[in-house]
Amino acid sequence: MNEDLTDDIDLSKDTLVDAVRHELAEQIDEDQLDNLGEEDIQNIVQESMERSIEELALHTYERILSDDEGLERYHETIEGFQEILEDRWGEPLELLERLIVWSMECGRAINQDHGFQARRNENYRFQALVHLHSRSVQVALEIHHLLKGGFADGAFARWRSLYELSITSSFISNHGDETAERFLSYHNIWEYYFAETYREHQDNLNVEPLEPEVLEELEEMKDELVKQFGKSIDDNGYGSGWAAEAHTGNGGPSLHSMKEEVDLEHLTPYYKLACESVHAGSKGTLDRLGIIRHEDIEQPDVLLSGPSNGGLNLPGQLTAISLAQVTTALLMMHLNSPSLADMLGMQMLVDDIEQGFAEASEALEQDDRKATKEWANQDIVDISLNCIDPSDLFSKPFLKKHTEFDSLPEFRDALPVDLDDVKNGDSVDPETDEVVQADSEFDSFQDLVDTALESWVHRNVDLSEFDIDDN
Fold this sequence. Notes:
Blueprint: H1 3-7, H2 17-27, H3 30-33, H4 38-66, H5 68-120, H6 124-149, H7 152-205, H8 212-229, H9 255-261, H10 268-278, H11 282-286, H12 313-331, H13 337-376, H14 380-387, H15 390-393, H16 396-402, H17 408-414, H18 430-439, H19 445-460
Helix pairs in contact: 2-4, 5-6, 5-12, 5-13, 6-7, 6-12, 7-8, 7-9, 7-10, 7-12, 12-13, 14-19
């Protein structure tokens, strides 16, 4: 146990304090206490803390592993959410899936028809494009899976990869065999520099050390590629040296310069946003696609730690666009009537996908705006009933003090409706008010909730933090 860590624990609030006291009581009796120095006592406290924390950790670990009910509740919640998401986004998600399968079948067919001959004739452009296409289909399937799960930000982050694949495919398609061959060979350059980094950190990683002859072999392969393609291919493993000779802009090749050359720079704003879904910056942390915001309406502060029904439209639309671009680059290798039909038909489907996601998003936006307005217009009774757990709002001391009921279950049983179904204090049925009038000091259910909320505030809010002017 790290000594600094245990030193930072606040014993006045920590749940371990009783366990530590018990440990100390077993180790130190009153007769021994006078003979112990300050350092001895500190050591005993430290050891007791460590044992108690380890025991608590083991207990917590075992409790989590045995909590089947908690896991089942989570699964039930997710199943219910999936049904809602399917109702909202099912149609455009199905269209996107059809596009992905169509693209997969196109890639499989063209590879079966021309793959062997392309390898035999050293048609590097075909080989590079078919590899890029197969990877793009897989990424698109990953995105689709994330969208079906309600993870818009994760899907957006994966689209970033698909966008880069579309740029690379278009660039190689434009520049032919030599650039494609450099692309296919470049991975050996990258592996050499990765091996250097691996060797630098292998002791701290506690992994199998890299044998010197492995690095020597990789360096020889790198040097052979430099001899074959020129020094420009060796970019210290940054990833784009393969494009150096074909690159026409100033400076070395980069994703930015390549996307301009292949006319895909118009998607740059979305790419920058997608990068924020990958990185740990402020923008990507605070602004999540899965959180729907209405700037003109007061909203609750939401921290998104799971799936959401919002934000699926942008990654869904962009995935369709980028996958179609990669597939088109491959189909262009062998133009004929079927491939032209595939390209034109895919564009029709992409248009349908864009429209489907846009319509679903607009409907969700309108429904969420309505729900948010209703939330913002809640009175204090609505907020109490909707946002505070009944057992906390109607505590046992409160019920005993103000009503004839000794517990929340008794109060629930006396009401003519389920307490969970009462969401608006202004529309409570008369029979509920009659129960309150007969069994409490209040004239209405709303009065009871108002007083319960006041009691809850005094229990849970430190009013001393507020500077209140008595005047």
